[in-house]
Amino acid sequence: MSPTIRHALWCAALMAGIGLAAPASATDKAPAKDAGKPAAGQPSQQEMMAAMMKMAAPGPEHAALNPLAGSWKTVTKMWNSPSGEPVTSEGTCERSWIMGGRYLVANYKGDFAGMAFEGMEVLGYDNMKKQYVSSWVDNMGTGIMMTQGPSMDPATHSYTLSGTMIGPSGQETTAREVTNIVDGNTYTMTMFASDHGQEQKMMEITYSRKK
After folding, report:
1. What is the pTM of this model?
2. Are the C-beta atoms of residues 161 and 172 closer than 8 Å to each other?
């Protein structure tokens, strides 16, 4: 189900639940005796509302992201080739919850090749897809990178997001991001990209909580 359809159903359920139907005119026919009664096997309005509320509620997968919230110092390493030395830079990141703990927004600032860099991520868990979902934008492009992946692995305290991106050559490549929560004050994000079937490490960011 697309986000647009889901939003439409959600709005329809809300309107039905709080009685926002248009008022009846004097010429309207009286409702049938069973009007509004769900057909056999169909959920009632109350059941639909309960299902919608459950779907929209933050759950344990959202809570698992709590260690990422806060103010961070960052050290970024970027590789141009697997055998080359990485280029290192520093930055900051602010992560905070919005919309009742449904989405974790990150605002990143740093530098890239001597130029000021800023980026923003919206990260959440889609209860319908049962996957983490992320969108990323920055001032080095005009696109929106979308990634998604399964729930956090409790054994490694990590989760993996995958998606595609367009490289400088205009070719689409597959990207994989692995975020690992080391402890309450440290986490890392490592990005890999596939080029002609060969995956290589592109970037690693270490986040250290500001004190």
Report:
1. 0.78
2. no
Q: How many CB atoms lie within 10 A of CB 39?
A: 6
Which residue do the tokens 């490694």 mark? Answer: 156
Helix and strand numbers (H, E) in the chain are 3, 10
H/E stretch holding 182: strand 172-183
Tokens of 43: 């959920």
Which pLDDT tens digit goes with each residue over 134-173?
A: 999 999 999 999 999 999 999 999 999 999 988 767 788 8
Q: Where are the beta strands (DSSP E) in 36-86?
A: 70-78
Alpha-carbon distances, residue 206 vs 9, 110, 139, 189, 194 (angstroms):
41, 13, 21, 7, 22
- Phi first, then psi: what are they for 114, rounded to 5°? 80, 0
Query: Token digits for 118?
Result: 């800023």
Residue 22 makes CB contacts below 8 A (sequence gap 6+) with none
Residue found under tokens 């309107």: 15
Give CA–CA dist 117/90, Å, rounded: 11
Q: CA 195: distance to chain centroid?
A: 25
- On whether the CB atoms of residues 75 and 93 are closer than 8 A, the answer is no
Please list, residue by residue across 88-125, b when 16 or more beta carbons sit within 10 angstroms of its beta carbon and e when fewer do. Answer: ebebebebebeeebebbbbebebebeeeebebebebbb
